[in-house]
Amino acid sequence: MTEERTETRAQEVARIRSYLASQSLRRTPVQLVETLQDAHQQFLAAVATVPVALFRTTPREGEWSAIDVLLHVRTIAAIDETAISTVLERGEQPPDIEDAIVPAPLETTRTELLADLERFRKQLIAVVLRANPESHLDITWSHREFGPMHWREWLLFARVHTLDHARQIQAIAAALGMHEKGSEHETGN
Questions:
Q1: How far is CA 33 from CA 28, 39, 126, 132, in A?
Q2: pLDDT one-digit tens code per residue, 107-156
Q3: CA-CA distance, 6 to 12, in Å (whole number)?
Q4: Which DSSP letter does residue 38 get?
Q5: Where residue 98 falls among pLDDT bands split at 50, 70, 90?
Q6: Cα dist. 107→56, 95, 148 in Å?
Q7: Angle 9-26/151-175 helices, nearest 10 degrees?
Q8: Between vectors from CA 141 to CA 138 and to CA 146, what angle results, nearest 5°?
Q9: What does pTM read for this prediction?
Q10: Where are the beta strands (DSSP E) in 29-165?
Q11: CA–CA separation, 154 and 21 (whole Å)
Q12: What DSSP character marks residue 114?
């Protein structure tokens, strides 16, 4: 019987950092966009598995609800779009990323968050596809755990981040007793 070795957070960060550094420059911006779009679709599919009636329900005390995760992903997508556009369109360094966890306000709806997320992704993709793939790679800004990254690393990090939260939504759905097929879909909230 083989023992499973658990990766420490420091090892995970180092592994992801290495992946971002190597793959962001091996892949073309079009390929990077395609990986982000695929992750985005996986995230949307996961969100669709949680019925509206349970979207604000936390699986356990102190955990995120599906709407909290969606708000976080939308917030980071807005930051990604603004920061990468700042670099590519103006050659300016954006501020370092402050990744705060904020519960979703009661008036926030899944519909509006999904619309915002879609808009931010489309704007980001349009900027990236117009850009010179080699421009402004000297400009970096930092993430508290993953350190300084240039725009292509941040674009690939958006994929990693989105997939991480797709898995989180899947875990929430599973904890709430949802299954991928047959779950309700949102009609308004």
A1: 9, 10, 10, 14
A2: 999 999 999 999 999 999 999 999 999 999 999 999 999 999 999 999 99
A3: 10
A4: H
A5: confident
A6: 12, 29, 35
A7: 130
A8: 110
A9: 0.89
A10: 141-143, 147-149
A11: 10
A12: H
